[in-house]
Structure prediction request, 301 residues.
Amino acid sequence: LDLSINIGFNPTRSLIADLTPDGPARTKGYTWMQTISGFFGVMAYLIGALVDNYALISVGVVIVFAFSVVPMFFVTEPRELAVKADKAAATKTEWSQLWRIYLAHGFSWIGVQSMFVYIIAFIQQHIVDGQAAPDVVATQSGRVIAISFAVMNVVGFLLPALVLAPLAARIGRVKTQAGCVAIMAAAYFAIAFHGYSTHRLYALMAVVGIGWGAVVSLPFAIMSEKVDKSRMGFFMGIFNLSVVLPQLLSTGVGYILSSADDSRVLFIICGGCLAVSAVLWCFVREKQGAVIATPVPVAAH
Prediction:
């Protein structure tokens, strides 16, 4: 399922790069992508929390088919992307910058994926009543997780187009990305030491959503201006490895968590990974002319 999701996303990410020029327009394209996909992510978590996961799967099948398959019949693109000779320098792949982006993005995803998978251990130890019957604990844990992720995704889908795109236009995408990831790291540390009630957890997950909204939107816009435009699909697929490989590495966090007495070590490790990512993003060079004096107006529905 995860493989099919990743494969399904890649053509969309490549199409946005093909259909938008470098600069603020491309940032807007990727941030609106996250706004739209994040909205449906919130709906998914709410269905899981308020109805059940069986209903979620049924609704998900219909939505995925309707919004992933059908739109492709209405999107047109040229068979070949012509690249003028005088533009060759502008489409050269900046490998040194690309590797920095891969590394920074990879550390982000170690922290993100580990939290997704193992947050249940933290919730069952510190949030729900561990003395209750196993089925009650499972139900309560599932509800807390669903609401937590719904809160995170509400912020994650509202911020990219409405806040992050104008902010990136003013101070630059790399600085915006680094700042949001640093905020996410701080929220993780706060959960580790203070998130011992549902209200605190939900509030801090809203702060986590600031980083989440950036992680799934801005890096694609940044990366797309560092590669050969005629091979955008190829590089977008390679870029996906900086998501998939960290997901595999997150199993190591599970081994550490299984031998730890206190599950808050999860958020300490994840916060550390996000902090490292924020520092690494500072070494990515912003394209000259990417920052403009005033925010770009954001389109509204």
